[in-house]
Each structure stands twice: as structure tokens, then as C-alpha cells.
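User: Sorry, folds how?
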Amino acid sequence: MANAHLPNSHPQVTPDWKPWPFTQPSFLESIETTKLAGFDGNRYSGTVPPAWCASNGRGMAANAGWCLSMLLKTARKYCRDKYGDNVPSDALTAHIDLLAPVPPGLFHVALQSHDAGSRQKLVKAELMSPFADKTTVYAAVQIRTGILEENIKTESIQAADRPLPDKTNDCGRLVNSAFFYYNPPSASMRYYCPNDGESILWSPKFGGRSARDQWFKLDDDGLLQLEHIPLIVDLIPDIPYNHLKGGLANSKYWLPSLSLTLHFRSNLKGREWLLTRTDMRKLHNGRYDLNIQVLDEEGNIVATCVRTSAMIPTRSSKQSSL
């Protein structure tokens, strides 16, 4: 990890780095939203920066992870604006279904809440275009809020699993200039994966060809927060790349996320590193699920996720290259 302190854009890390034609605001700045007047406190607005979009084959669009991160922050703000500090607003679970590409530029979020017991709320939200004459709903979201960590005296059980890969002794840095250029959000993280196999994308020792253990660290050397988790689970290079000829360089398929379902297990409390442990059980009929655990450096589960994606041949692809 001799170059772990260097950003992805450094020539010693990515010699063929290609700069973008735009600047990238910080992630936490990019997911800020503002309450709009005239909607009974139930609508917020924000802007998708081009630097937080990725190529979707026809243009640039925000990915599901960025959208859900923004909506987590907006839902917390909405609960505090609507109910004050008397109602807990920690995210417990979150689900997003992408319905249409989310383009760069202005958007609106329409929210409503329902009681879920005496101390929890279920927030439903729609991410939509801001145009009153022709509204497009880009995503539908549900977020359950409450108290993430309570002093409840019950057993705490976590099933035993394989050891975590050592960042220094077991791993190498994953870099790919095309991946960073066509998916600018991916360059916001530094990635380390076990390097004992024929490709850094998969490891015979840590899970096999249909799995990946991957360490994440912010490229600006900041500390990770809960809002980063949806972004992280959506930045994991898709497991089908482990099987495709050329790995990340394979351009015969577009692999968009269709939905994310997250369960938050504990407070993040400003971590420098997180590990994702990802498994794919089956790819069939152009669809697959990734089962993801997010762990801290002590091996404690911070969150779990199911990410559903599609595998779509690009126009230039005539046959499978699996």
C-alpha cells in the first residue's frame, strides 16, 4: 500500500488518467437539497452535477447509489423539518427502484410520511423532473426511520465468516482509467482487492470467481458517513466482470443497477475504511442480484444490501463473451 496516500488521478496511480471536462464538487455538497415553498413542506429540490453521473450508453445519468444517498439525507431533513427533534430520523432501511435515467440538472423530491409504530416513520418519496407540464418520475423510494442504535438488552449474534483480507499483505489497488472516466463517481473512492488470483477482480482465497472482498476509502482522505453507504454498494464493479473476457475493459454489456435494498445495522461513526463482501448466486435471463455485506475494519456488519442489476448487450455486441 505504498501509494495509498495518493489520489486516483496521480500519475503514479493511474498513468493514463483522462481528466473530465467538468469539476467534481464534494459528495456531501452534491446531495444537498432545499425545501420548496408552496408544497406544505413536502417537496425539496436539488441538482445532479454532471461529475456525479455515469455513462448509461446514451448519455450521462446519476446512478442508484447517488440517488439513494441524496434521498437518505433529504428524508432526514424532511423528518426534522416536519416533526422536530422529538421524532428519531436515523435511516433503518431504504429501498429504491429506478424507473428512468436521472439526467444532470435540477430535480424535485416529493415526500410523504406514515407512522410505523410509536417511534418510527415510513417515508415514501418520488424523485422527479421539476417541470409541472410534463413530470417524469425517475425513482420510487421507501425509507424507514427511527433510532438506529438503542440500549436494548438482547443477544448480539453475528455468524462466523471467512477472515477479512489484510489491506497490506493480501491486497492490491484496483485502478482503471476508463472506469474512472466513464463513471466519474467511481474515482471518488480508492479500492483495494485481494490479488492472489489471475485477476484482481476475484480471489480464489477470498470467495472465488463469483464473489469479491473489496476495501473502500475516500479519495479525498475524508471519513466515511452513513450517506456514503448507498454510493459504495453501487460502485462495486459488477461481479459478471469476473467472468467476462477482459474484465472491466469488456464493453459488450451495459450493467445498470435497477434497485437497491439496504438495511443499516450500526452507526458508521466516521470510519476511514470499509469493506464490501459481495456474492452473486445466479445470472440468468439478463438479470442478477448482488448480496452485499458492508463491514468495518473489526469485521462488524455495518449494513447489508441486495442490489438488482440488468445485463444488456450494447449495440456493438452480437454474441455473449462469457
